[in-house]
Amino acid sequence: MTVTTDDGVRLWAERSGGEGDPLVLCHGGPGLWDMFGDVAELLADVTPVIRWDQRGCGRSERCDGPWTSERFVADLDAVRGHFGLERMALLGHSWGAQLALSYALAHPDRVRCLVYVAGTGIGPDSDWYGAYHHTFLTRLADHPERLARWQELTARAERTRDEERERAVLQWSAEFEDRDGALEPAGRMADPWFGINAESNTVLNEERKRVWGTPELYSACEGLDVPVLIIDGARDIRPRTAVDSLAKALPHARRVILPDAGHLPWAEDPKGFREALRLGMLGP
């Protein structure tokens, strides 16, 4: 299915599941694509879902941007409008959690509830990036050949499509607690492989460094009159203390920390993730 934005960019989108109000999913990145197939299956008897690829990424139309949170918020609103949703339940993962929060702050009257999964809070990057990078390298070093190959590929000025995929799989393998088996789920994330939009990734990450951690953002979150469910995996290599800033600022927040899960909690604790989401959206 194609959603056309107000500036004419065509976005891939898909609705699955039964009747009822759907949960709209915002994938991570920036510059990646929807990898929520497993989540849609996991929630099949809980809620229908809407998945979509952000502009310039995955199955959506390649374009020249613009790469701004404001533009991506407008794209998400185009998805909402296309499916005829007056108010939506919204879930964002990682960078998608930042996007979903940005949308809720811009359009609180259009959000019924927000599920914030594995984000990095609203503080500056210094709250989490250094510890994340150290743990990332430590995880890869569990298999020295993986670290060496990742460093080799990262140092190259140009990489083939296959090398880009290999580098991504190696990088994503650090997200999984089972170090010996980590390449298998990381490989599934790269299948199919659409290629990473590096420009989108760079520009949006630079924007976050300018805007996140500002008094204005804290104040906006303190005034957000939307119920928010924060779901964290305790074993995420991004320190979960970074999310404390958001949890403290929000007036209507509930937080669930899954002790045996990492950055993709539905992959490592599907039962716990499903139950947290079910209770958070539907109540006991």
What tags apply to this protein structure?
AB_hydrolase_sf; Rossmann fold; single chain; 2 domains; alpha/beta; Peptidase_S33; about 280 residues; 8-stranded mixed beta sheet; hydrolase; globular
CATH superfamily of the largest domain: Alpha/Beta hydrolase fold, catalytic domain
CATH architecture title of the largest domain: 3-Layer(aba) Sandwich
Proportion of beta-strand residues: 15-25%
Provide the CATH top-level class of the largest domain: Alpha Beta
Number of domains: 2
What is the structural class? alpha/beta
Give Rg in angstroms. Answer: 18 Å
The name of the CATH topology of the largest domain is Rossmann fold
Share of helical residues: 40-55%
| Cα-to-Cα separation, first versus last residue | 34 Å
Family: Belongs to the peptidase S33 family.
InterPro entries: AB_hydrolase_1, AB_hydrolase_fold, AB_hydrolase_sf, Peptidase_S33
Pfam families: Abhydrolase_1
Domain AB hydrolase-1: 22-266
